[in-house]
Write a structure and sequence with these properties.
By secondary structure, the chain is an alpha+beta fold. The protein folds into 5 domains: 131 residues, Bulb-type lectin domain (Agglutinin, subunit A), CATH 2.90.10.10; 127 residues, no CATH class; 126 residues, no CATH class; 99 residues, Phosphorylase Kinase, domain 1, CATH 3.30.200.20; 193 residues, Transferase(Phosphotransferase) domain 1 (Transferase(Phosphotransferase), domain 1).
Length: 770
């Protein structure tokens, strides 16, 4: 009988302990409860889970938060990353004074705070955004937290989490990589918001600067990739006297997203894809390549990962230590060719296409105009450069630099940077010596002293912005001058000359001459009065150009004939490799001319295809076999032509195409309309009511044939020209490549004061074959 009573007593005591261990509320932990190893707390919506876990084959136990709805466990926060438990004795509880405590065998392993509070009813809660909070149950405002894990990130930033500094409390929200994929202890890399001067993101490797973003430009951090795709996320940057932070939010709660720093120090945006049960890399927020290391090229040096060597000096500067540069040590940077003379003796050189320099020694005013900004810089002899930082609405705000310009890289940016230069440097006349007129009989890259070959002496005013001129015989010309910030290297420059000098066709731009001397390189083309097809189709500012259907149809024909000449009818078999609207120029009569042969590849003999490890071109026009495998052929150009046809018909860009009813890109949208027998709806509103339906339908059909997934299914350009010139029955197209937007989109908002919304865009022009 005694044994029976004892058994019942032990059973009741065990039930009481169990009650105190597991809360009735699945997402909370009260002061009279404890969460032991093996128990978990689940957020109200089932998105996140808090509990104990081990990594890999290790027996160490950690208290952390992970995604519940992700099939492979992805940890987003760890309490005791540097103090793991070596057994399963761990227990989490919240004290009566509001402190979370991780205990093991009676010892405190980790706690949330050393500051205790009185007269509160604390409760810990795991929210559905992944934030573990301690709050006062008696408080009328349940959004006021005593403590929150969002203030102490590990290696992950979640949507809604602030990344930056609270200037009132001193909390510095930075995230630190794991030591390795199997070791969550503090790693080598730390990402943080540097608030000296104008804020920017730094990544440190130990005590050394590893990489840097540029300053926030109103849409994104300068030097970081951007996306021109449908808006599903909101980015925010707040910069005021109380706090400086960046955060992003997802517009659709069903999207599982994170910003993650891997053990190698790469910052990557990721979204979970249920269909593949894997994380999809949206973008690496700081480019990872040979130009990533901070200050690689030293003061006033610029880095271009596609050049060799990668470092060069900005215009008006030269290597400070040439002997070091000769052995690839560029850290000493560059020095001015001509010294500054403060006041009226200085001017400013405008450059674009670069990530803005380090802003730790800078000053910002949000209300100044660009003219006021220049005046402020001119009046301060310590000012080395200025810019209108906020690129929205045509540009505004004034950013001044007060030190050597450091960590500049060539990048696909449209912002202008104005660098202080001696006036004598800006106005000196540099004769580029021998500018050779091209003749069919010879082609050379240097002047050999001959007096018999015709030439012109071209005088260029350094810093001038003019891109056109007139020869002595009255011919208008366009000058393509490669600056040191150009992505096109000397090899591409020479390749362009070799290719186009031997090609003559009414639908190819005509090269009149070239010059190479020192670091100056120029190409002289026939003048194209109506600039590029890209501007005519997509630039709303080109109000003087309105392409009607006959012009568009003629442009399609002209591009097709030009490509046929390159692929088949010329003395060389040439694959352009960068056919896009921006490389189609329009003359006075709107005749199309294919231009920019810097990336072209010549085939010899019976060659029909080749493979490369360096994939070049423009996102939105590159064929799938080229982008994925580096395999290119004439069918690569056919794919680009098909994209062009659909863009010409629709007046919409394939890259960044948006439709409110689906996520397809332009190719997928055209394919959808074709299958639903609504093909005519693809036409631009400018031509829809005045075009010839049969021509329009035929053009779209041909465009879809050209963008088919498999290269062997696409027609040759000779077949395309035949199809355009007659009314024969066309074969049905198969599904196009890149059918759906694979880059998951985002919308961006910032606050330099009040928060505002804006759309973010990106162009990817260089890819690596996988």
């Amino acid at each position: 009988m005694l044994m029976e009573k004892l058994t019942i007593l032990l059973f009741c005591f065990g039930a009481l302990i169990s009650l105190l261990t597991i809360s009735n509320a699945a997402d909370t932990l009260a002061t009279n409860e404890a969460m032991r190893d093996g128990d978990t707390i689940l957020s109200a919506g089932g998105m996140f889970e808090l509990g104990f876990f081990s990594v890999g084959n290790s027996r160490n136990r950690y208290l952390g938060i992970w995604y519940k709805k992700v099939s492979n466990r992805t940890v987003v926060w760890i309490a005791n990353r540097d103090a793991p438990l070596n057994n399963t004795s761990g227990m989490l509880q919240v004290s009566s004074d509001g402190i979370l405590q991780l205990l093991s065998d009676g010892d405190t392993i980790w706690s949330s705070s050393s500051v205790s509070l009185r007269n509160i009813a604390p409760v810990a809660q795991l929210l559905d955004d992944g934030n573990l909070v301690v709050r006062d149950e008696r408080s009328t405002d349940q959004q006021i937290f005593i403590w929150q894990s969002f203030d102490y990130p590990t290696d992950t930033i979640l949507p809604g989490m602030k990344f930056g500094k609270d200037l009132v409390t001193g909390i510095d929200r930075r995230f630190i990589s794991w030591k390795s994929v199997d070791d969550p202890s503090t790693g080598q890399y730390t990402a943080y918001m540097d608030t000296n001067g104008f804020p920017q993101i730094f990544v440190r490797q130990g005590n050394d600067l590893h990489s840097r973003s540029g300053p926030w430009n109103g849409l994104r951090f300068s030097g970081m990739p951007e996306w021109r795709v449908k808006a599903t996320a909101l980015k925010e940057f707040v910069f005021n006297e109380k706090e400086i932070f960046y955060r992003y939010k997802v517009a659709n709660s069903s999207i599982i997203s994170r910003l993650y720093m891997n053990p190698e120090g790469d910052l990557t945006r990721m979204n979970w894809v249920d269909q593949t049960r894997s994380w999809f890399h949206i973008l690496t927020t700081v480019p990872v390549d040979s130009c990533s290391p901070y200050g690689l090229c030293g003061p006033y040096g610029t880095c271009n990962a596609n050049n060799f060597p990668v470092c060069s000096c900005m215009r008006g500067f030269e290597p400070k230590h040439p002997e070091q540069w000769s052995v690839a040590d560029w850290s000493g940077g560059c020095t001015r060719r001509l010294p500054l003379n403060c006041g009226s003796g200085d001017g400013f050189l405008r450059i674009s296409g670069v990530k803005f320099p380090d802003t730790r020694r800078s000053w910002y005013n949000s209300s100044m105009t660009l003219g006021e900004c220049e005046m402020a810089c001119r009046m301060n002899c310590s000012c080395t450069a200025y810019s209108d930082l906020d690129i929205r609405n045509g540009g505004s705000g004034c950013l001044l630099w007060f030190d050597e310009l450091m960590d500049i890289r060539e990048y696909d940016e449209t912002q202008n940077l104005y660098i202080r230069m001696a006036v004598s440097e800006l106005t000196s006349k540099h004769f580029l010596s021998r500018y050779w007129l091209l003749e069919e009989s010879y082609l050379t890259f240097k002047y050999d002293g001959s007096k018999n070959r015709p030439f012109l002496e071209i005088m260029v005013l350094t810093g001038a912005e003019s891109d056109s001129g007139v020869l002595d015989d009255g011919r208008e010309i366009a000058v393509k001058r490669l600056s040191k910030t150009s992505r096109q290297g000397i090899d591409e420059f020479k390749n362009e000359i070799r290719c186009i000098a031997k090609l003559q066709h009414r639908n190819l731009v005509k090269l009149l001459g070239y010059c190479i001397q020192g670091d100056e390189t120029m190409l002289i083309y026939e003048y194209m009065a109506n600039k590029s097809l890209d501007l005519a189709l997509f630039d709303e500012g080109q109000s003087s150009i309105l392409l009607d259907w006959p012009q568009r149809y003629r442009i399609i024909h002209g591009i097709a004939r030009g490509l046929l000449y390159l692929h088949q009818d010329s003395r060389l078999r040439v694959i352009h490799r960068d056919l896009k609207a921006g490389n189609i120029l329009l003359d006075y009569d709107m005749n199309p001319k294919i231009s920019d042969f810097g990336l072209a590849r010549r085939f010899i003999g019976f060659e029909t295809e080749a493979t490369t490890n360096k994939v070049v071109g423009t996102y939105g026009y590159i064929s799938p076999e080229y982008a994925v495998h580096g395999l290119f052929s004439v069918k690569s150009d056919v794919f680009s032509f098909g994209v062009l046809v659909l863009e010409i018909v629709s007046g919409k860009k394939n890259r960044g195409f948006f439709h409110e009813e689906h996520d397809d890109n332009l190719l997928g949208h055209a394919w959808r309309l074709y299958n639903e027998e609504r093909t005519l709806e693809l036409a631009s509103s400018q031509i829809r009511d005045v075009c010839i339906d049969s021509e329009l339908l035929r053009s779209i059909h041909i465009g879809l044939l050209c963008v088919q997934q498999h290269a062997e299914d696409r027609p040759t350009m000779s077949s395309v020209v035949v199809m355009l010139d007659n009314e024969s029955t066309l074969p049905p197209p198969k599904q196009p490549a890149f059918f759906t937007q694979v880059s998951l989109p985002e919308n961006n908002a910032i606050s330099l004061g009040p928060t505002q919304n804006s759309v973010d865009n990106v162009t990817i022009t260089m890819l690596d074959a996988r």
